[in-house]
Amino acid sequence: MPIPIRAVQAEHPRDGNGNRDVPETLLALVDLTLMQRGLIRELLAEEHSVEIVDVPAGELAATPADAVIGSADALGEQQVCELLERWPRLRALVLRGDLNDASLYLLKPHREHFGDISTAVLRRVVAPRTCTDWNPLT
To answer: What is the pLDDT of residues 66-80, one digit of tens each?
Structure first.
């Protein structure tokens, strides 16, 4: 599956060096309280490379966000897994309670050296995985 890339609109203004003044990161906020959204926007106010949008949970799978921050109610483990399968470069921060309990989900390359190849190693490599199997070869 190709990795989606957001198109840059031609009408975005350019700075004096000819660079587009376009945010590099699209951050989607999902099912957060008004206070949580306000705090996140305030904390990232100086980050001009980040565009922050509010996205309904039902529309998140169709949103090519680079990162998402959402409540545990909207972003359960299964929902996060499905998002990561669709958007492998996504970073998902799931909040429980206020902003004092958060978990980051992301996919990253994993390398494990085996040395000699054995039947046991090959079985581990080809064993079917579910989307909640976060540890690659355990």
So the answer is: 999 999 999 999 999
Query: How does pLDDT run across 10-47, given as a tens digit for each residue?
Result: 333 334 454 445 568 999 999 999 999 999 999 999 98
- How do beta strands 67-71 and 50-54 pair? unpaired
d(CA 19, CA 17): 6
Tokens of 92: 């998902």
Helical (H) or strand (E) element with 80:
helix 77-86
- This prediction has a pTM of 0.71
DSSP notation for 86-124: HSTT-EEEEE-SSSS-EEEE---------SS--HHHHHH
**Are residues 110 and 136 in contact, defined by beta-carbon separation less than 8 angstroms?**
yes
Comparing CA positions, the residue from 47, 48, 39, 49 lying closest to residue 69 is 39
